[in-house]
Design goal:
46% of the residues lie in helices and 19% in strands. Helix 3 links the parallel strand 1 and strand 2. The N and C termini lie far apart (69 Å). By secondary structure, the protein is α/β, with parallel strands linked by helices. The chain folds into two domains: 132 residues, Response regulator (Rossmann fold), CATH 3.40.50.2300; 132 residues, Rossmann fold. A six-stranded parallel beta sheet has the order 2-1-3-4-5-11, with helices on both faces. The chain is built from eleven helices and twelve strands. Helix 1 crosses helix 2, helix 4 packs parallel to helix 5 and helix 8 crosses helix 9.
Length: 313
């Protein structure tokens, strides 16, 4: 074969590879940027959600995942700034655990206008353009906490709630579910719900104030683990461990160990790894234009001393 014909054949092969399967391979190797934006990363709950999200991303070689968050759950303005930055970067899809409602919805509207699908995670909000929701039934969790407390105190006495940030749907729903049960019982006096912003130190301070104001308090429901752990420390400082029923929410390992040790009575369990994993899987589907399940309930459990070992495996 002449040198001229060899060169011509090589050129044809190169053109075919660029226009054909090789080009398709180039498209397939282009990364799909998925971003999970949580309320914070300062607690075991959010770290476990991040771990589940990363597992989902590892299973798809075309996906590049970023997990971003404000420094604290109350720093809503930081979450807004993070979302605006990701919209400017034109990521393929967002999975968002909204730290607020009024502040976050306008920036989600910007994502929708930019053609970026948005999954809502953990905290549902009334936003019509969401691709879907992944989380739990928080109202059910509140009812489970109330029912446990009523059994533990014989449906008599004073009870209180230490709650997270005002206006956040998860916190509102947990409190609403709790009150739905408690207010039906005439022998129980609900003395109020005090905010501690889902923070341990504030949970301890609020618990100290409750014990001062209500020395005959029988039980407390803290609507996340960090506040429950802070409350536990305040109860222990007054030598009241075992005398005041304490129920938390989330079931991180420290809280579960506290249940085993008898320092906390129960914890409503959600499964953040599953939430993070499913949120990223659904976000990937949305980014590819595939059908997305509109409401994914991961499920809720109750950790007691009898089953706590199962939650530490």
């Amino acid at each position: 074969m002449s040198r001229r014909r060899l060169l011509l054949l090589a050129a044809c092969c190169l053109a075919a590879s660029l226009a054909g399967p090789g080009c398709a391979r180039s498209n397939r190797t282009k990364k799909l940027d998925i971003v999970l934006v949580t309320k914070a990363l300062d607690s075991e709950f959010w770290q476990r959600m991040k771990s589940g999200a990363e597992q989902a991303a590892r299973e798809d070689p075309e996906v590049r995942l970023a997990v971003l968050a404000p420094e604290r759950e109350i720093n809503i303005d930081q979450q807004v700034a993070i979302l605006e930055d990701q919209i400017l970067k034109r990521v393929a899809a967002l999975a968002v655990a909204p730290a607020g409602v009024a502040e976050i919805i306008p920036v989600l509207d910007k994502a929708h206008a930019a053609g970026i699908p948005v999954l809502i995670v953990d905290t549902d909000i009334p936003w019509p353009h969401r691709a879907g929701f992944v989380g739990i039934d928080n109202r059910l969790g509140g009812r489970m906490a109330a029912e446990f407390i009523l059994r533990a105190i014989g449906a008599r006495g004073k009870v209180a709630v230490i709650r997270g940030v005002l206006g956040v749907a998860t916190q509102e729903d947990r409190l609403a579910g709790f009150l739905e049960v408690v207010r039906k019982v005439p022998g129980v006096q609900f003395v109020g719900a005090q905010p501690a912003n889902s923070e341990r130190a504030l949970g301890m301070t609020v618990m100290e104030n409750l014990l001062t104001r209500h020395p005959d308090l029988r039980a407390v429901f803290a609507t996340n683990d960090q506040m429950a752990l802070g409350a536990m420390e305040a109860i222990a400082a007054r030598n009241l461990t075992g005398k005041i029923v304490l129920v938390g929410f989330d079931a991180g390992r420290e809280a579960v160990r506290a249940v085993l040790q008898g320092r906390m009575d129960a914890v409503v369990a959600q499964f953040p790894e599953r939430i993070g994993y499913r949120a990223v899987r659904e976000a990937i589907r949305a980014a590819r234009g595939e059908p997305v399940e509109k409401f994914v309930d991961i499920g809720t459990g109750l950790v007691t001393r009898e089953n706590a070992h199962d939650f530490l495996r």
